[in-house]
Amino acid sequence: MIHLYLDDVRPCPKGFVPARSAEECVLLLLECEVDVLSLDYDLGWGQPNGMQVVRRILESGRFPRRIYLHTSSDGGRLNMYQALYAGRPEDVLVVNGPMPPELLNEIANTAENRL
């Protein structure tokens, strides 16, 4: 079980596996069981964005347990949230915003304890 963080620029939080592109994120989602996924929308000029990842999640049915949207793109966040919320299984949490500090600390502390 991994925690996955999609962002092309921001530093990856401790305890997360970084994905720097939509393609990399999709590969990890298809290959790994994901607990927490945090999505950015804009991933570089002319590059596939977070919505492409959302579409692949919906097509494959491989949902993480918890999905957060840390993007600064209001329109991108809204589109991703609406699509994920409408297509999610009932046991999947979709949050229209970033991870709370408590969750980030919990995951970081768990990662430290594994070392």
From TrEMBL:
Domain of life of the source: Bacteria
Keywords on record: Cell cycle, Cell division
Alphabetized InterPro entries for the sequence: cREC_REC (IPR046909)
GO biological process, one term: cell division
Ranges for domain Cyclic-phosphate processing Receiver: 2-85
Protein known as: Cell division protein FtsJ
